[in-house]
Amino acid sequence: MNTIAIICHPEKEYLLQLLENIFEWSKNNKIKSFILPETAQMFGFSEHVMPFDQLVKVAELAIVLGGDGTILSATRKFAPYKIPVAGINLGHLGFLTLDEPNNAIKTLETLVKGEYTVENRMMLETSVYRNKNLVYSGNVLNDVVIQKEPRSRVIDIDISISGTPVNTYRGDGLIFSTPTGSTAYSLSAGGPIVSPSMELILLCPLNCHTLSARPLITPEHETLSARLFCTQTKVEIVLDGQESFMLEPDDEIIVKKSQINGLIVTFNPRNFYSLLRKKMHWQ
User: Fold this and answer.
1) For every one of its 283 residues, what pLDDT tens digit does the chain have, with 9 covering 90 and above?
2) Nearest to residue 175, comparing CAs of 85, 273, 263, 241?
3) What is the DSSP code (8-state) at residue 149?
């Protein structure tokens, strides 16, 4: 390994010291490490800086200093370039991270030795059509959420699966989740926990106004279509809880398996169920 990208959550504690330690370690081990210009400007670095469009041409691995949210953002950016993402947890839950900051250098040494596995994580592609014209699109590692604004009336969303009408959901919205995202927002809304090694699409209603509305799992080859009924309520689509786009009545939202995969670095052996028990504090 010759070149690594370092992606940071700028507000995390101990980040400056951690960056300095990583730069010193990479210099001693003759490894090129780079941060993005916006990070360099924030912390006053003049070296180890490279713009994203150049970085993706040379980086073999992206080291993410932050929590799961930072990893989600980094994965969406690096997945199209087939660059694996390895996380060092500066957040809370850390489902997608490798280790804690006090073990950062040890983690880097293990990565450089090649003692890791890259997991292919299914992603979802979403597209918004307005009057049959594409107006918005994106990929997610966790989930696509259609949600109304707070303190407003419920909304009606028509769902079809691969051309077959399924249901009209009346409530606060819908969550379309990957297996990776099944432990995120979908879990809070009553959705099932799914092993990230599986490939499927999970549909979970948000506070639906009918007892028969339950989470629905479809095979990964299905295409889900959501159509927003005419409403005066403001509704938006949110990708991984980080990017949003305002919807209009009669917009059609298409959700399907993405052609790209998120590449998440793990250490062997890593058992999802042991991780689940640890992170969820199960007895």
Assistant:
1) 889 999 997 776 678 888 999 999 999 999 999 999 999 988 888 889 999 999 999 999 999 998 889 999 999 999 999 999 998 887 666 678 776 667 788 888 888 888 889 999 999 999 999 999 999 999 999 999 999 988 888 999 999 999 999 999 999 999 999 999 999 999 999 999 999 999 999 999 999 988 888 999 999 999 999 998 877 889 999 999 999 999 999 999 999 999 999 999 988 767 888 888 888 888 8
2) 241
3) P
Polymer length of the chain? 283
**CB 247 within 8 Å of CB 129:** no
Q: Which helix (H) or strand (E) holds 88?
A: strand 85-89
Report the C-alpha dihedral over residues 194, 195, 200, 201, rounded to 10 degrees: 40
User: What is 127-196 written as a DSSP string?
Assistant: EEEETTEEEEEEEESSEEEEEEPTTS--EEEEEEETTEEEEEEEESEEEEE-SGGGGTHHHHTTPPP--T
* Span(s) in the chain for CATH 3.40.50.10330: 3-115
Helix (H, G, I), strand (E, B), or coil: what is residue 262? strand
Q: Which residues are catalytic?
A: 68
pTM over cut 0.85: yes
The answer to whether 223 and 189 are in contact (CB under 8 A) is no
Q: What class does CATH assign to 3-115? A: alpha beta
* Partners of residue 158 on adjacent β-strands: 168, 227
Class of domain 123-260: mainly beta
Q: Which token pair is 237?
A: 């689509």
Q: How many CA atoms lie within 13 A of 127 on its CB side?
A: 13
| Phi, psi dihedral angles at 89 (to 5 degrees) | -75, 115
Contacts of 221 (CB under 8 A, 6+ apart): 257
For residue 108, give the amino acid letter. Answer: L
Question: What is the spatial distance between Cα 19 and Cα 226, in angstroms, rounded to a whole number?
Answer: 44
